[in-house]
Write a structure and sequence with these properties.
By secondary structure, the chain is α/β, with parallel strands linked by helices. It has two domains: 2-31 and 112-154 and 168-262, Isochorismatase-like (Rossmann fold); 39-103, no CATH class. 34% of the residues lie in helices and 12% in strands. The chain has eight helices and eleven strands. α7 packs parallel to α8. The two termini are 35 Å apart.
Length: 267
């Protein structure tokens, strides 16, 4: 129910604040079947794929518990040996950066499928805002790279491969948005993953440009929820720790139901 309630509150936030919301920018997870975080990418010695929400560590890859699936190498345009070399390098890179182990997700946000679409009620709210304010909504597509996770809308989890080859780049769009607008309100799913890592990347860019920009960021805590699968995984604590870290850096944690004029720093 968390995501459902988050969406309802976010829709209400848009309608209630039409007069002050200048622009809406959407980030859309966009995937295909053969990507490093989907089951088909990996196999064990029996040829079985990992179940959704399996966490794949560097140590498990080193020990051979999970391997690159050589059957998909041709479709990805890589050599099977490189696929295995890359998987080992990738999981080691995640560990070195202090990020989550490689997480195998259910097939989701598949390009061309219904799961890629915005929730219909929110899409209608965005359309209404576009018409009322005569302001085209921005859309940032993320997550299409086959050999890296891309929780953050600013850039993939790993930027280069084992041979120093470039995989992706950081997107400068969001720091430009902070420089242009007075307030940037942030919401979406999931608090523990896509939103958290986007804000983490943004905070890095803020510190490189101007730490004062953090004060323009307002996190709508009642319009986001962590990944929780009872009996399997619960990222609530990690999500809360991330929000605390963002708050300590100068970002504001607020509720969508409070008047924007009452938010900290709004005068």
């Amino acid at each position: 129910m968390g995501a459902v309630e988050d969406n309802r509150r976010l829709c209400e936030f848009v309608y209630r604040n039409l007069g002050v919301l200048t622009r809406i920018i959407l980030t859309m997870d966009t995937h295909r079947a053969m990507q490093i975080f989907h089951p088909i990418f990996l196999v064990n010695e029996r040829g079985e794929h990992p179940a959704p929400l399996t966490m794949v560590s560097y140590e498990e890859v080193t020990q051979g518990q999970w391997k690159f699936n050589p059957a998909i190498a041709g479709s990805l345009g890589i050599d099977p040996a490189y696929g295995q070399k890359y998987l080992l390098y990738y999981t080691q890179a995640l560990k070195a950066q202090g990020k989550y182990d490689l997480t195998i997700w259910p097939y989701h946000a598949m390009l061309g499928g219904i799961g890629h679409a915005l929730v219909s009620a929110f899409e209608e709210a965005v359309f209404f805002h576009t018409m009322a304010r005569q302001a085209q909504a921005g859309i940032t597509i993320k997550g299409q790279l086959a050999i890296t996770e891309s929780y953050s809308a600013i850039g993939p989890e790993v930027l280069q491969g084992p041979d120093g080859e470039r995989i992706g780049e950081k997107n400068p769009e969001f720091i430009s948005i902070l420089e242009e607008f007075d307030v940037v309100a942030v919401a979406g799913e999931a608090k523990s993953h896509c939103l958290a890592w986007t804000m983490d990347d943004l905070l890095t860019q803020i510190r490189e440009h101007d730490p004062r920009l953090a004060q323009k960021v307002y996190l709508l805590e009642d319009c986001t929820s962590p990944v929780v699968v009872p009996g399997v995984v619960d990222y609530t604590e990690l999500a809360d720790e991330a929000f605390h870290r963002f708050s300590q850096a100068g970002m504001h944690v607020v509720r969508s139901t409070d008047r924007i004029a009452s938010w900290p720093g709004m005068g």
